[in-house]
Design brief:
The structure holds 2 protein chains of 2 kinds. Helix content of chain A is 28%, strand content 36%. Chain A has helices spanning 29-39, 68-80, 109-121, 142-152, 185-191; strands at 15-24, 44-51, 57-66, 84-89, 95-106, 125-130, 133-140, 157-162, 166-169. Chain B folds into 3 domains: 10-179, Thiamin diphosphate (ThDP)-binding fold, Pyr/PP domains (Rossmann fold), CATH 3.40.50; 199-357, 3-Layer(aba) Sandwich (Rossmann fold), CATH 3.40.50.1220; 363-566, 3-Layer(aba) Sandwich (Rossmann fold). In chain B, the strands form 5 sheets. Chain B has a 6-stranded parallel β-sheet, sandwiched between helices. In chain B, strand 19, helix 24 and strand 20 form a beta-alpha-beta unit. Chain B is globular and about 70 Å long. Chain B starts with 9 loop residues before the first strand and ends in a 13-residue tail after the last strand. Classes of the chains: A alpha+beta, B alpha/beta. The A-B interface holds A 2-6, 8, 23-24, 27-28, 31-32, 35, 39, 69, 72-73, 76-77, 79-86 and B 126-127, 130-131, 134-135, 138, 155, 188-192, 291, 296-300, 312-314, 316-321.
Chain lengths: 196, 579
């Protein structure tokens, strides 16, 4: 891409853009979307796809590293795909963004209690216990998961999988859910410092 | 004659539905090649009014459909079987994609139960063509044929046109279902071809136009696709703005018009490129700032504001950052703008452009003493002189002859030049000319082709003869892959690796196909040979043996700034012994 010509640099700072893309639920549509990013040399950071409340519509959350002009062109190129119904760039919109990870950590008897403690600080759940490992499931923003991962690393991360993010615009004039409701991970996120 | 308004469903095979739908879409002719997986469709062809033209290679079928589309503005149709038949179409589909040409390609596919089994002649052609089609379909049931064909035609011709491929399994062709045209309406909830600009954007554009002292219109292919020739002319005349054209824009604005500057870009005239570099406003009309017209983007029109009228929003700010984008159909956008455009006297600007021309006319080969040698520029100039009064369509291939055609054939009308611009597909000219002749039988069709490109698709000479088509072929034969040789001359120290061609006797070859053929070696023979070709009833092939190491000037080297042109030498230097 020959973009060196621009004197104005304000549009050239790269950032992670988050798109919510509604597509027709038809065979091959995922390939079309993925192929577009490859074809135009845009780097996908993460892509998730799943069902929605309407059976004929699938929903994708795509994060891409791009500058502002590229971000606009990504949107325009997505719209050129005949099966794409709606594209929302929610990068700067109030939104709930979630990633889910499962982390298998080496945990022999002396380390076990430390790992359990860390998991509880991050409000993660232990979903599998084996003689020499624990598997922890955590849901939250990417920063939160990165934070947990960082503190678990010294114990030995044996295996890790992340779903990639899913995102949803907040409801109109919504308020954060009360801090007493511990099941809401958004609140948990505020409770825990993970600036590791 | 079938009742077109009938809404009653009747039972038909997928194959019969296919032809019925093509007829209802207005198709009169298809270009194709049969094979196993498309045989049910060919079997059903006998019940159809559609004329099938048998090509000699499926690439030819796609270029013919493309030439048909570009000559007429109607959707061209190509048909092939699965596997190799389908993959042979790839080059033609990519050509149509890059030049926004509306074609529909129908391919047979192995039975739906066999898909994924690596069956005989199975290729995942929807996968293969995904990035080079506007859209494509795999049809596995007869009941999907009608809607898919209707959608394919609608997608191909609407918005920014492009190729659509429809892959139909053998069982979908063979099985029977109820056919109901009315019920098979396109269902494309995500497809929005008709965008239009905001009011505010129109106002911003008008302000830039009225404040500009040195504006230039950059006229592209979009003018022809949109049918906006009259509007562009009215706009240019009313506002007093000169017009530079892209290769695919040639014909969109009359060559003889006083405001016409000519072609811009890599092989445009130097003063045209200088005009763009000195402009304070570019009005890009249906063009996409291809690297062949901008040169180095860092230095491209750096003092100019830019207004981009373009139907495809993904083209906005792709190569060149623009100040005001007007996304929509060019003709409709100009209709909105025209009443508000003020007449401004820009004679000072126009005079300064005249100054830029300098000694260009003196350097022009047409104004140099005739050395007796035959140059491609002579051939093109004389061909233009002989054919300019009629309704002539020139179809070129790719390379030096293509640039000389663009420089020396003065196109007055839209759709009088058909050429592969974006993809630069050698082998395009001969089959595309067949498509053009079929689309416009009353037009005089000339193929202008190099000796390299001609040999890529010359098998279609047989198609010309079999279909009794009056197509004239001018081979600009220099015994080299000329444009590649030119690059080797300029940038690779004259290391002519793999560019000299040992050719057959093209006149004998033409005669073998039953085509009247001749060889021309001197300038004095050009006009008589063109006249003889025009008077002859059937197709004619003329083998013009031109100067071997001639060079297209001016030239902007790839990556250089647009104003850094390699100019024509002041007099022609003979570089090789004459044949």
């Amino acid at each position: 891409m020959n973009r060196d010509d621009e004197v104005d640099t304000t549009n050239r700072e790269n950032m992670l853009n988050t798109y919510v893309v509604y597509v027709e639920n038809k065979p091959g549509v995922l390939t079309r979307v993925a192929s577009l990013f490859r074809r135009r040399a845009f780097n996908i950071d993460s892509l998730t796809v799943g069902r929605t409340e309407k059976p004929e519509v699938s929903r994708m959350t795509i994060t891409v590293d791009a500058d502002r002009d590229q971000a606009r062109r990504i949107e325009a190129n997505l719209y050129k795909l005949v099966n794409v119904l709606l594209v929302e760039n929610i990068t700067n919109a109030p939104a709930i963004v979630r990633d889910l990870a499962m982390i298998k950590v080496a945990a022999t008897h002396e380390a076990r209690s430390h790992v359990l403690e860390l998991a509880s600080v991050f409000r993660a759940r232990v979903v599998d216990v084996a003689p020499d490992s624990l598997t922890i499931e955590i849901t939250g923003g990417e920063d939160k998961i990165d934070g947990l991962l960082e503190v678990l690393r010294p114990y030995g991360v044996l295996e890790m999988v992340r779903t990639g993010i899913v995102a949803m615009r907040r409801g109109k004039s919504s308020a954060p859910v009360s801090a007493t409701n511990n099941t809401d991970h958004d609140v948990a996120e505020e409770d825990v410092s993970h600036s590791v | 004659m079938k009742d077109k308004t009938s809404t009653t469903a009747k039972s038909m095979t997928g194959a019969s539905i296919l032809w019925e739908c093509l007829e209802r879409e207005g198709v009169k002719t298809v270009f194709g090649y049969p094979g196993g997986a498309i045989l049910p469709a060919y079997d059903a062809l006998k019940g159809s009014k559609i004329h099938h033209i048998l090509v000699r290679h499926e690439q030819g079928a796609t270029h013919m459909a493309d030439g048909y589309a570009r000559a007429s503005g109607q959707v061209g149709v190509a048909v092939a079987t699965s596997g190799p038949g389908a993959t042979n179409m790839v080059t033609g589909i990519a050509t149509a994609m890059l030049d926004s040409s509306p074609i529909v390609c129908i391919t047979g596919q192995v039975g739906s139960k066999l898909i994924g089994s690596d069956a005989f002649q199975e290729t995942d052609i929807t996968g293969v063509t995904l990035p080079i089609t506007k859209h494509n379909y795999l049809v596995t049931h007869a009941s999907e044929v009608a809607r898919t064909i209707r959608e394919a035609f609608y997608v191909a011709r609407s918005g920014r046109p492009g190729p659509v491929l429809v892959d139909i399994t053998k069982d979908a062709q063979q099985t029977t279902c109820d056919f109901d045209w009315e019920a098979a309406k396109p269902q494309l909830p995500g497809y929005r071809p008709d965008l239009s600009p905001e009011r505010k954007e129109y106002e911003q554009a008008l302000e830039l136009i009225h404040n500009s002292k040195r504006p230039v219109i950059l006229a592209g292919h979009g003018i022809i696709i949109s049918g906006a020739m009259a509007e562009v002319r009215e706009f240019a005349e009313k506002a007093g703005i000169p017009v530079a054209l892209t290769l695919l824009g040639l014909g969109a604005f009359p060559a003889s018009h006083p405001l016409n500057l000519g072609m811009m870009g890599m092989h445009g005239e130097a003063w045209v490129n200088h005009t763009i570099q000195e402009a304070d406003l570019l009005l890009a009309f249906g063009m996409r700032f291809d690297d062949r017209v901008t040169g180095n983007l860092k230095t491209y029109a750096s003092n100019a504001k830019k207004i981009h009228i373009e139907i495809d929003p993904a083209e906005i700010n792709k190569n060149v950052k623009v100040d005001v984008p007007l996304v929509g159909d060019l003709r409709e956008v100009l209709h909105e703008l025209l009443p508000h455009v003020e007449s401004i006297d820009r004679s000072e600007w126009l005079d300064s452009i005249d100054q830029l021309k300098g000694d260009a006319a003196v350097r022009d080969i047409q104004n140099l003493p005739d050395s007796g040698h035959l140059y491609a520029a002579h051939v093109i100039n004389d061909l233009w002189h002989e054919t300019r009064d009629g309704e002539t369509v020139v179809v070129t291939d790719v390379g030096q002859h293509q640039m000389w055609e663009a420089q020396y054939y003065k196109h007055e009308k839209a759709r009088s030049l058909i050429t592969s611009g974006g993809l630069g597909t050698m082998g395009f000219a001969l089959p595309a000319a067949i498509g053009a002749k079929v689309a416009r039988p009353e037009a005089e069709v000339w193929v202008v082709v190099g000796d390299g490109g001609f040999q890529m698709t010359l098998c279609e000479l047989a198609t010309i003869v079999q279909e009794k088509l009056k197509v004239n072929i001018a081979i600009i034969n220099n015994g080299f892959l000329g444009m590649v040789r030119q690059w080797q001359e300029f940038f690779y120290e004259r290391n002519y690796a793999a560019t000299p061609l040992l050719n057959p006797d093209f006149a004998k070859l033409g005669e073998a196909y039953g085509i009247r053929s001749m060889t021309v070696t001197e300038r004095s023979q050009v006009v008589p040979s063109v006249q003889a070709a025009r008077q002859h009833d059937g197709p004619v092939l003329i083998n013009f043996r031109v100067e071997q190491e001639d060079t297209v000037y001016p030239m902007v080297a790839a990556g250089a700034s647009l104003h850094e042109m390699i100019r024509r030498p002041s007099k022609i230097v003979e570089t090789a012994a004459d044949e």
